Amino acid sequence: MKMPDAKGGDFELAPAGAQLAICIRLIDLGTQQTEFKGERKLQRKIMIGWELPFEKTKKGEPFIHYKRYTLSSHEKSTLRKHLEM
Asked: Distance between CA 67 and CA 44 in Å, rounded?
């Protein structure tokens, strides 16, 4: 199978810095097998969709950003850090 030629898209990056964001989607990805430092384990994963309502793309639509997280409220977890910001 031949891979199609890469074509540039009209992808826009959201402006850098702290932004007001609204959670628009929370998706339960279920239990996923992960590997870290050669150790395999099962972890519950989620994906959160964030909308930046005051930052618009060239098309006039709000930016949307999706991020995957391990479902954990541990003090060192990325999910907890992002929710406490």
From this structure: 14
Closest to 29 (Cα-Cα) out of 18, 45, 12:
45
pLDDT values of the chain reduced to their tens digit, one per residue, 85 residues: 777 777 766 788 898 998 899 999 999 999 999 998 999 999 999 999 999 999 999 999 999 999 999 999 999 999 999 888 7
Which residues are 43's β-sheet partners? 32
- Report how far residue 49's alpha carbon sits from residue 26's, in angstroms, rounded to the nearest whole number: 6
The per-residue DSSP string of 22-70 comes to: EEEEEEEEEEEEEEETTEEEEEEEEEEEEEEEEEE-TTSPEEEEEEEEE
**Tokens 């402006």 identify what position?**
15
